[in-house]
Automatic annotation (TrEMBL):
Pfam family name, one: Sulfatase
Pathway(s) per entry: Cell wall biogenesis; lipoteichoic acid biosynthesis
Stretches that traverse the bilayer: 6-25, 46-72, 92-110, 131-156, 185-207, 227-246
Descriptive protein name: LTA synthase family protein
Lineage: Bacteria, Bacillati, Bacillota, Bacilli, Lactobacillales
Residue span, Sulfatase N-terminal domain: 284-575
UniProt keyword annotations, A-Z: Cell membrane, Membrane, Transmembrane, Transmembrane helix
Record Gene3D superfamilies: Alkaline Phosphatase, subunit A
């Protein structure tokens, strides 16, 4: 979008140049002087016309490209403008040529109508009402532009983003956010949005100086009607911006999320505090490893994934030889993702409390009121049993309220990126990716787990990796590059590091008394990586359980979600669950059907996409529903 700004500079330069040429003076008495002035005036008109042609061509080209993008034609699909496949001209060149031809025709028509008096300069009378309506109209149009660009950015940056992810991201502060996401937002939304807004404002000013007297109906009406029509038109443009953004997220999904109510929680939610739990005589330690964006798609096709070559050989070996993998097929599989669980903190809440994480207009997730005060989590259960609990991140735990959730639901000790700086593990000015890389994370985790084992209490060590976060992951210096793209190399290296960490765990004296749960936090949101997978392939979140105290009735061809891992983890630790259900989760070791199997995954996901009075009142406890009752 720098191109229009350059054109505007040329426009100003050309205007100043042409204004410096004197007009033809009738009072000139010398014939040769008249001829000279006539030539100068003619040159002035030609020069000015050329400059206007260039400027209008640039503006028209920019607007054409923006409209093509707004209406959803990706660059690769713009080949429809080249008439047939293999045409020698690129789509951009075709757009430039068409815009140039159309603009030159418009310039000729404009000059002709101006010369014939059909277009004349406006009077410069000042009007407060006129100024106010102009300001409102411009602001509405600018808002429309930024809303539309933001909708395109969400899809471009996050892929198939859902409305719950968008809403949650909006209400959260920027602290701890990946700087690359902020940079892409500035590059793809702020800069082009500001540039386009600038062009439109300049266009409005220019058009305001001239009016088309013979191209509109005479005596259109009072100025108040014109001013009102102007604002209504701006609102219509704003509506287009909102309409475009909503279309990117899905109209039905947005409608359900904000305007439809579900009774799912009333009908199926099992309050965890009412469930009788029987604990073993000797408690088991728990190490819960959340792997960023880890899913079964990274496996080879013969193993249940979609890759020509297996990117997870270490995890595959552990699953096949000693671990338990609950699969959605007869190969290696995983859990389905639902609304409210498709981002990191939502995925962690789902797997440790059996509920999705939904938005409330009166809940800032631990900033001003408690974080999901009605939820009862794995951490709270273990805390009551005397467990020493620790949360380990290579990023800032304050991002999206993760620290608030785990401290308010289990009194975890936080050892994150900021803790590492305080303890001198990394330099004060050290920052890569989301904080520090996973190579350091796994090494620091070894020391932290060993320290926990020195205490005379069972422990729960929960950690989260970050290198496999979109876009394309973090490629560290020691990352092997065996594959043709960065994300595959990062995923494979994450698998290697996890394998090394598991090998270290197996050598520790506490390993036999420790249940290890390995799970992706959610599906990856990398926008390009999954374009080549089979259309009918069902992506799932990978999971693995080691040293389980409970035998599973069946582990294959299960339909379940990440919320089912909540009671399943407790069962793996040897804890017996009356009824085998907690929250919206089902113990996968039992023969009880999951909620997805009972009512169907699609039905479950659709209902979770709606508002729930029960959720707002009983679990969130911070919405306008509660305030209205006070």
């Amino acid at each position: 979008m720098i191109f229009p700004l350059v054109l505007f500079g040329l426009f100003v330069a050309g205007y100043c140049y042409c204004r410096s040429i004197p007009d033809l003076k009738r009072e000139s008495v010398n014939r040769s002087e008249k001829v000279e002035q006539l030539k100068m005036a003619q040159g002035k008109r030609i020069t000015w016309s050329i400059f206007k042609g260039v400027i209008f061509s640039g503006i028209a080209t920019s607007l054409t490209l923006v409209l093509v993008r707004f209406f959803g034609y990706p660059y690769s699909k713009a080949l429809f403008l080249t008439l047939k496949r293999g045409y020698p001209f690129r789509p951009t060149y075709v757009l430039l040529t068409l815009s140039l031809i159309i603009t030159l025709l418009l310039v000729v028509l404009f000059e002709d109508r101006r010369a014939s008096g059909k277009i004349r300069r406006r009077d410069s009378n000042f009007s407060i009402f006129n100024t106010v309506t102009h300001t409102i109209a411009v602001l509405l149009v600018v808002c429309s532009i930024f809303i539309a660009y933001s909708g395109g950015w969400l899809v471009f940056n996050f892929g198939g983003v859902s409305i719950d992810q968008v809403v949650y991201a909006i209400v959260q502060p920027l602290s701890g956010t990946d700087p690359e996401q902020i940079k892409t937002f500035i590059k793809l939304v702020v800069i082009p949005g500001a540039a386009l807004s600038y062009l439109l404002i300049v266009g409005v000013i220019v058009l305001h100086r001239y009016k088309f007297t013979r191209l509109v109906l005479p005596n259109f009406g009072p100025r108040a009607i014109i001013y009102t029509a102007r604002v209504i038109g701006a609102f219509a443009i704003l509506g287009f911006g909102v309409f475009y953004s909503v279309s990117k997220l899905g109209y039905q999904e947005v409608k359900a999320y904000f305007f439809e109510n579900s009774t799912l929680f009333n009908d199926y939610y099992v309050e965890p505090t009412t469930v009788a739990l029987e604990f073993p005589d000797k408690p088991k330690n728990l190490i819960y490893i959340f792997l960023e964006s880890m899913e079964t798609t990274y496996l080879s096709t013969e193993l249940g994934g979609q890759q020509p070559e297996n990117l997870l050989p270490n995890l595959t070996k552990v699953i096949q030889e000693e671990g338990i993998n609950f699969s959605n097929n007869d190969l290696i599989g995983g859990a389905y993702q639902t609304t409210g669980t498709g981002f990191t903190v939502g995925g962690m809440v789902a797997q440790t409390a059996g509920v999705p994480l939904n938005f409330s207009d009166h809940n800032t997730y631990g900033k001003t009121v408690p974080f999901l005060p009605g939820a009862y989590s794995l951490g709270e259960i273990l805390n009551k049993q005397g467990y020493n609990q620790r949360l380990f991140f290579g990023s800032g735990a304050d991002f999206a309220g993760r620290d608030k959730y785990f401290t308010q639901h289990g009194d975890y000790k936080i050892e994150d990126y900021y803790y590492a700086k305080e303890e001198g593990w990394i330099p004060e000015d050290y920052h890569v990716w989301w904080g520090y890389e996973d190579e350091k994370l796994f090494e620091f985790a070894k020391a932290s787990v060993a320290e926990l084992n020195q205490e005379e209490k069972p422990f729960n060590f929960t950690m989260l990796t970050a290198d496999t976060h979109f876009e394309d992951g973090y490629l560290s210096e020691n990352n092997p590059q065996e594959f043709g793209d960065q994300y595959s190399n990062v995923i494979a290296f994450s698998d290697q590091q996890l394998g090394d960490f598991l090998n270290w765990l197996k050598e520790q004296p506490f390993y036999e008394d420790t249940v290890v749960v390995i799970s992706g936090d959610h599906l990856s949101m990398d926008r390009d990586y999954f374009n080549s997978i089979a259309p009918d392939y069902k992506r799932s979140v990978l999971n693995l359980i080691l040293n389980s105290e409970t035998e599973a009735v069946t582990t294959t061809n299960r339909t379940y979600t990440t919320m089912d891992l909540y009671p399943t983890t407790l069962a793996a630790m040897g804890i017996k669950i009356t009824g085998d259900r907690m929250g919206l989760g089902t113990n996968l070791f039992s023969d009880k059907p999951t909620l997805s199997e009972e009512i169907g995954y699609d039905t479950l996901n659709d209902e979770l996409g709606k508002r729930s009075n029960y959720y707002d009142l009983k679990i969130m406890k911070g919405t306008n529903f509660e305030l209205l009752q006070e």
